[in-house]
Amino acid sequence: MIGRRKQVALALTGLLAAAAACQNQVRHESAGTGRPAPSAARAFTLVASGDVLPHSSVIERAGYDADGNGYDFRPMLFGVEPVVSRADLALCHMETVYGADGDYSGYPVFKSPPQIAQGLAATGYDGCSTASDHALDDGAAGIRRTLDAMDRAGLRHAGTARTQDEARSVTMLQAGGARVAHLSYAFGTNDIPLPTGQPWAVDLIDRDRMIADARAARQAGADVVVVSVHWGTEWQDAPDRLQLTLAQQLTASKTNGRPDIDLILGTHAHVPQAYEKVNGTWVIYGLGDQIAGEMYNDKGVQDSRGNDSTLGRFTFAPPVRPGARWQVTKAEYIPQMYDLDSGRVRDLNQAISDGAELEGVRDRIREVVLSRGAADDGLVMGE
């Protein structure tokens, strides 16, 4: 596998149901470098990015970049590789499932080439959330192919499952001196019913279940609990009522005075949305689309905002005393866009010298990201 792996990943099974958390045996599975987890607590950086949504034009671009030998998504992501690969832990959102044997498609029923998992891993990503409204575009077979390909690439995943045991597991990753649990949920599956006999195939938004899962992950040894949520109103810059209400409820949940959830990462709206500190916990309502083809908004008009996004970067410091939470000591956002002409993700901080147009995109993203007062809580634009 190409790319720098930055941590040992641990899978902890049988622990998502809070009532059963103490009864199940913890199972450790290593991936990546095979190095043992660090024993001393030390600070770490976490980077997160938005929806990977390969439309037909994106698939065609990856085919072109492979020079006739399959599909290569690495050049597409090369512009953000420096930021992603330097993080101790990097998480993406894989919105689509994978096809096979050339059966690939874009909107409205997505089936992406499995080589995208290799491209994400090569860029430095350690895992992806997979619960989305397109998670059942090809039924249970699509989920199986997707997670199989991620496993082969060394890319961890959370939010969908091939088996009931997998659905009951917690995705646990090592970052610095911390064990980080990654949970993932979606608002729905575009009215596609869950596979017969597999109600656990996709994790769906349910406040009580999400809190129970977070508590179970903590009981299993998670120092930091990160929750990815596929939610929001498409093409709306502002978070909607569900986002605001759920963010309040999730961040207010505590056990023995310690918050159950340490970071919330939002996707789905297609446009960047605000960052906000809610009850002392950072919430990104919407990261935007990291990779997408031409996007048409709810009025049927091509909308360039659908190719804008941010990378969120958070520095976590060890607790000041046993039993306390890991604290975010630095919160940053990095503006980026998917350039339709070149088929490349561009870090706008690095590309800003290319002209006023890109500067305008960066400024538009900044205005939305800071629209709920995040600057007052210390959020800054990162390099």
UniProtKB/TrEMBL annotation:
PANTHER family: PGA BIOSYNTHESIS PROTEIN CAPA (PTHR33393:SF13), POLYGLUTAMINE SYNTHESIS ACCESSORY PROTEIN RV0574C-RELATED (PTHR33393). It comes from the Bacteria. Pfam families: PGA_cap (PF09587). Keywords: Signal. The keyword Ligase does not apply. Gene3D superfamilies: 3.60.21.10. Residues 1-20 form the signal peptide. Coiled coil: none annotated. Belongs to the CapA family. It comes from Streptomyces diastatochromogenes. Residues 45-294 form the Capsule synthesis protein CapA domain. This is Capsule synthesis protein CapA domain-containing protein. SMART domains: PGA_cap.
